[in-house]
Amino acid sequence: MLAPPCRLYCLLKRAQMLLLGLGIAYLMAGSILLLQRSSIRVTQPNLASLPPLLSLAAPPTALRPAGLGVRTRSRWASVQPQSGGGAKASRHWPASQRLGVQHLHRRWFHSLLPESPEQRAPLHSRHKGTYIGCFLHNASDRALGGTMLYDLRKMTSSLCQDTCSESGYQFAGLEYGAECHCGNRISSSRAAEEDCSLVCRGERGSPCGGVGRLSIYKVEEQLPGHRKFKNVHHRGCFKLPNSTISTFPVSSFQPNLTTQSCVETCTDKELPLAVFKKPHCFCTWTSSLFSLNQQCVGDTGLNLTSSSTHTAAPELDHYQVYHTPVLDSRCKERMFLPQRSSSLVALSSFPGAGNTWVRHLIELVTGYYTGSFYFDGTLYNRGFKGEKDYWKSGRSISVKTHESGQKEIEMFDSAILLIRNPYRSLMAEFNRKCAGHLGHATDVQLKSKEWPEFVSSYAPWWASHALSWLRFGRRLLVVHYEELQMALVPQLRLLTAFLNVSMTEERLFCAQSNQDGHFKRSGGQRPSFDPFTPDMRQMIDPFILTVDQALKSRNFSGVPQEYLPR
């Protein structure tokens, strides 16, 4: 009679020991994981009084190793509003503590990013410039004041130097191992070399800055007149009084003055505007003097690369004005909305319609970050800080989305509907899928079976996306990509009025002078054949007509004439 109770007792005792063993194993595994996560080393001696690490703003979710081209929803963003109190408290910390927290946050975020193939094996430095040294670079002492470029995965000294050289700068500086700064003069004092101990995310073996420190290189010298500039734009012909011209900070007299040499002069002086009238070249900052109502009548653009000496209009007070590659310091100032907005504004488009480019323009012209319904690590790495913000936070001026379902559309109070020629949209999206945001699909990829399959599935989506937003959208502004290209200023005025943001002339200059940014795909590489077959066109053309009719039925102007089949 005692055998069953004894067996039951032994069984329970074994189960108890098994549960105890599992509990010990669980605790050991947790301890190992905690030790791994706490392996961040802080070299600053003044971090002892920092608040606990948990008070830092939550970092973004680790990116998928499969590649950055995949758009993913940010899973951590749903808890972001809870960190508001900590953000306010951090404003009262001493500067040294804020620097330490910034260091921790950078190191923590970098540790979450998967290593790129370039980082798994040591790389040799391939830069052509000369290393100058480590310099201070913070809010009060900025070593370089020119263009900035972000790439938290693949930044190298070569990439930074090439970017600065192409923008007309003489110095390139790297910070945090991932940020590139350009300039033509170093405006801060040297720092200890050990302060620039971080390695580049895409290259090992070269100094890549530190926290508030720049590793500065002198880029390869180019002969005068042979420097090639990006982001140089002809602002126009302006009528300016001679008394005003005399107050400009830089002036030069050159008998053989050309447009190229004047732009070079002003770029070297780190001034954003070159004011040209042979034989005089003036350099200055942007101001209300260069508003549209001051332009000459019948103004035409000029060719920068031409070596011919241009004379302006016959009047003595007419000058040709160019935007140099130097970005006005005011153009770099961007922030989240100072007060959370209760109204969500969508920036909706079919993939490949230029959503990233329009976001870049909106941020330049308003000074506020744009958000995203997704989390695209590539865009965040290149400076779109709103990517990691929760899309419903109300802190962004607008929110990128490609969604076209009724439920998703009705979550927004208003929307900017961006439409692009479907042939170009399809081509742009296929390029992105094959070669990233800036690359191009090869002829081999366009001749593969993937291309017709892509067109057959995506072309109907181009139409359904526009039709759904026209049907379910509450308050819409329709913007055509091609019209934004041809008439940038009037379209930007419409955008800012719709967003209920006042646009200053200075901000308008920002958008005009850096309208391409670092995310506009080069138009140089084209397929050697027409990738759209007659069958594809027979499928796409009716979609264009359908969207055109839907636009007109909602009292919008129809699609541009170039869309319509001939």
UniProtKB/TrEMBL annotation:
Record-linked SMART domains: WSC (SM00321)
Sequence intervals crossing the membrane: 17-35
Pfam families: WSC (PF01822)
Domain of life: Eukaryota
UniProt cross-references to InterPro entries, sorted A to Z: P-loop_NTPase, Sialate-O-sulfotransferase, WSC_carb-bd
Sorted UniProt keywords: Membrane, Repeat, Transmembrane, Transmembrane helix
Residue span(s) of domain WSC: 128-220
PANTHER family: SIALATE:O-SULFOTRANSFERASE 1 (PTHR45964:SF8), WSCD FAMILY MEMBER CG9164 (PTHR45964)
Family, as annotated: Belongs to the WSCD family.
Name of protein: WSC domain-containing protein
